[in-house]
Amino acid sequence: MTEVHVLCYNKTMRFLKRYWSLIITGALIPLLMLLAINQLQWVQDLGIRERYRLIQGLHATATQLGNAIQNELGIIPIVFDMDGDEISQSLAKGHTDEFSKRWEAWQSYAQSPDIISDLYILYIDERTASAVPVVWQWKDSSFLQVTIDIQDPSLFMFPLRPGDSGKRFTMLIRVNNEILEQKLIPALAEQYLFGKNDYYFRIVDTVEKNVVYESSNTDSHMLFANPDIRYPLLKPDYLFLFNSLPDMRDPGFETVPAMTILQMRRQSARNQENPDRVAEVFFDRRPPEQRDRTERARWVLEAVHKSGSLKAVVNMFIVRNTIISLGTLVLLAFALIALTIAVRRNQELAERQQDFIATVTHELKTPVAVIGSGADNLASGIITDPQRTQQYGTMILEESKKLATMVDRFLIYSRLSSHRPLEFTRLNLQDLIHSVLDLYKQQLVEAEFRVECITPHPVYVNGDMQTLSLALGNLISNAIKHAREGLFLGIDLRKENHTWAIISVRDHGPGISRQERKHIFEAFYRGSVAKSKQIPGSGLGLNVVRRIIETHGGTVSCEIFGELGTMFIIKLPIPDHISLLSKEAPHE
């Protein structure tokens, strides 16, 4: 039982050691998916916050512009701060010096003094239900009793402070629309809308139904069909509401400013629930969601984003951040997968290197052991017969040649790995093929191979004789080791379009499985059949072939014909001047 547990433990540890990178990757992929889902939710929330930020920015700009316009008229309740008794005495006795001083103060303060075309004083006797309002017009430093329509939308009104007598007077002003729309509003709009290049703005006169100001020459009818905001710049009852605050104060408060601050604070607290209502500063007893901010407003500011709407901006913002976030996660996933593949390849390469070391050690031991044994027998005098001595000497020579060939292969592999340049000369591939076949002639004869060599004409290339001979020799050696059942080796030489020299090495071996074809040119790779049959080899042969041919600017490929065998195809470039010489050669 103990042995079984030990075997299971060792098997589990080997599995974890070999596939730990895949296990970690498999565990991280679900975490990446969960992170992607949370990232999408975060992007949506970020889009909502971006919309609130843009809306609040627009409202802040509109509020500043509205306050600037209102301040031009809002100073009137302060300048003409006279109670009902003072106004009553001025009207009754014709004493207008105080009012004239205040009017002159207004003229010196206002940015556009001529913005007020008419000023009236209105009195309604509240003790009489059917009382007719009495109106006085300020003209030429005196008051004249006149008749006007107090429902005129161009009139702005605000109540004056009641005196001890309880009489209540209301001041009416008529704004000069031409001055307001042509001088004041455009000047203030240019000042407060400067730098807001992402939006189109316009200011509309809701009474005259005309456009007072436009930030750009565009088709405003189509562009502002659905504006992002509509903000009231000035309402006719603004001054009335402004000056009526004292009547709304709580008896517990003694000062108007305290009540004003609390009113503003309460209104601001209500508006925080909806960012679209942040800039609502008009006192209305209806809840914010039921108000129309532009109701009774004479001039309205409209804004629309240049992309079409804030919704489009937010959608683009969400799409862009989604692409960036998901792209980052995808890149992270690909990097994780690539790292896993690299780790697996390094693990496989390490395993192949271990197999290579074991194989090379075994192959080196065999000739060394044979050489050592034969040399020992000769040195100890055990072998005295001249014929036996010659046999031992021949055996030592052959094994030393094998050992030298093996060392040369490793040196060439090292040279190719270091990318040191080769010295090319003009070579005749026909002669090279025959010379390599002569080197393996004895092995082919001993293995009873039938050799078919078709090289009808010389073919010249630029190359290195030693490395090309090694490449062709490796293919012949592989055929001898892996295709013994077929007992056939075929080598063909031909030209393709006078630009390529083609060398084909054919055998009638068992072939290579589909799964192993993509690995046969990798370093230290040995097929499963070679391992199972313990066929000697280092796993470097085909890799060396590929490196040599690629160094010469060519390619090597493998074609499998099922049970009919395998064919390796080497393509080497024929330089232009060699191609021209071969065309002019008499034997061709």
TrEMBL record:
MF terms (GO), sorted A to Z: phosphoprotein phosphatase activity; phosphorelay sensor kinase activity
Coiled-coil annotated spans: none
EC number: 2.7.13.3
Pfam families cross-referenced by the UniProt entry: HATPase_c, HisKA
Transmembrane segments: 19-37, 323-343
Cellular component terms per the entry's GO annotation: plasma membrane
Top-level taxonomic group: Bacteria
Catalytically driven reaction(s): ATP + protein L-histidine = ADP + protein N-phospho-L-histidine
Keyword terms, alphabetized: Kinase, Membrane, Phosphoprotein, Transferase, Transmembrane, Transmembrane helix, Two-component regulatory system
Ubl conjugation is among the record's keywords: no
SUPFAM superfamilies assigned to the protein according to its UniProt record, in alphabetical order: ATPase domain of HSP90 chaperone/DNA topoisomerase II/histidine kinase, Homodimeric domain of signal transducing histidine kinase
Domain Histidine kinase: 359-576
InterPro entries named in the record: BphY/WalK/GraS-like (IPR050351), HATPase_C_sf (IPR036890), HATPase_dom (IPR003594), His_kinase_dom (IPR005467), HisK_dim/P_dom (IPR003661), HisK_dim/P_sf (IPR036097), Sig_transdc_His_kin-like_C (IPR004358)
Gene Ontology process terms (BP): cellular response to phosphate starvation
Gene3D superfamilies per UniProt: 1.10.287.130, Histidine kinase-like ATPase, C-terminal domain
Protein name from the UniProt record: histidine kinase
Organism: Gracilinema caldarium (strain ATCC 51460 / DSM 7334 / H1)
Phylogenetic classification of the source organism: Bacteria, Pseudomonadati, Spirochaetota, Spirochaetia, Spirochaetales
